[in-house]
Amino acid sequence: MSLRLPAAVPSWFEEWPSFLNDNVAPSCALGKENEGSVCKWVWDSTESRWLANASEWLLAKPLAVVLIVVVAMLIRWAIYRTIRAITSVGNGDAEATTPDGKPKKKPRILRPFREKAESALLASGLMSERRAQRASTLGSVLRSVTSVIILVVAGSTILGLFDINLAPLVASAGIAGVALGFGAQSLVRDYLSGIFMILEDQYGVGDIVDLGEASGTVEGVGLRITTVRDVRGVVWYIRNGEILRVGNKSQGWAQVVIDVPIPFGTDLEKAHEVLTEAAARLTEEEEFKDDLLAPPEVLGVDQMTATGLMLRVTVRTTTAAQWRVARELRARISTDLAAAEITSGIAPIPAPPA
User: Fold this and answer.
1) β-strand 297-304 against 225-229: which pairing, if any?
2) CB 318 within 8 A of CB 291
3) Angle between helices 61-87 and 125-161 (to 10 degrees)
4) Cα-Cα-Cα-Cα dihedral of 42, 45, 51, 53, to 10°?
5) Most buried one in 236, 252, 269, 318, CB count within 10 A?
6) What is an example of a GO molecular function annotated in this UniProt entry (predicted)?
7) What is the dihedral of CA 338, 342, 344, 348, to 10 degrees?
8) Could you tell me the pTM of the whole model?
9) Residue 187, Cβ neighbours under 10 Å: how many?
């Protein structure tokens, strides 16, 4: 009567007690299919049946595990090195020069994506900070994805060496993933929204944005949180998943719209002429010449209410200068209307008789 042990025990125990016969070749060293195996090599070298049977667990599989771990670490190191190379500032196409004549470059990873930052940022440090933060975030995502993939592949390969059935583990991981997904929906939504915001360059460091309840200058863009400082100096931390709309006032160009209220009975032709001259003088000054992208336009009467008329003046400017141009144009219009003895403002509604 032979003694057989459970299947989890190494196969060389199944031959108990015959494996004690050291002069008999083990089954793993017989046959053409075992030519070149570790068992065959150990048997030919030592003629020890015990060592030949145990070589698979004591030598072959531990070496295979070490080899898999080393290869995985080398692949991870190579990929990390590549990610650092394409995300570091200073690797990419030169777009401009610094004040000392050195070329400014953007990371290679940003080359395929459209950059929506205004041209005024190219001459400031905000542009490089924006690019560095954007590239750093993308690099962090790539490194995390790389680590997870390499860990899963290496782990499943090692478990396969020991003939462990991976189906229950995959099923358990799937159930755990679903449970985690339901429990952390908001967190996942924040990260996914952050990734797409960065890829699409919806806004960046230095942009002036309107995010709904919070608006101001963007100071930081992360995968989960966007940091905005408003005009009063208050810092707002907004979860990316809660941002449903983005109004960016720093992309492309800006349109300055100024509504000038005047009372009924005002000479409209004279008022139109005063507004046109005030706007035209602004375009001739060196201080504002480069900020205006198109000549100012006086559109005429835009509204007519029960208390007066509203004349509208528009001018297209760079995004960085829109508020400075608007303040200056309002001041000049007010001064010129006063000089022309034209009342600026809505006439008050008289109180009804008692």
Assistant:
1) unpaired
2) yes
3) 170
4) 40
5) 318
6) mechanosensitive monoatomic ion channel activity
7) 130
8) 0.57
9) 14
Residue 190 token pair: 């924040």
The helix/strand/coil state of 257 is strand
Q: Which residues contact 11 (CB under 8 A, 6 or more apart)?
A: 28, 53, 56
CATH code for residues 253-339 = 3.30.70.100
Q: Evaluate the CA torsion angle 190, 191, 197, 200 in order and state its sign.
A: negative
Task: Count Cα neighbours of 195 within 13 Å in the Cβ-side half-sphere.
Answer: 12
**Do 97 and 85 touch, CB atoms closer than 8 A?**
no
> Tens digit of pLDDT per residue, the chain (354 long)?
444 444 444 554 444 444 444 556 666 666 666 666 667 667 766 666 666 666 677 777 788 889 999 999 999 999 999 988 887 765 444 444 445 555 455 566 555 555 554 444 444 444 556 667 677 778 888 888 899 999 989 988 888 887 778 778 778 878 887 777 777 788 888 888 988 888 788 888 888 899 988 889 998 888 889 999 998 899 999 999 999 999 888 877 888 898 888 888 888 888 888 888 888 888 888 888 888 888 888 888 888 877 788 889 898 888 878 888 889 888 888 888 888 887 776 555 555 555
Give CA separation, 165 vs 9, 125, 148, 176, in Å: 15, 56, 21, 18
CA angle 266, 268, 271 (to 5 degrees): 90
* DSSP classification of residue 96: E
Name the residue ranges covered by the structural domains of the chain. Answer: 11-65, 116-251, 253-339
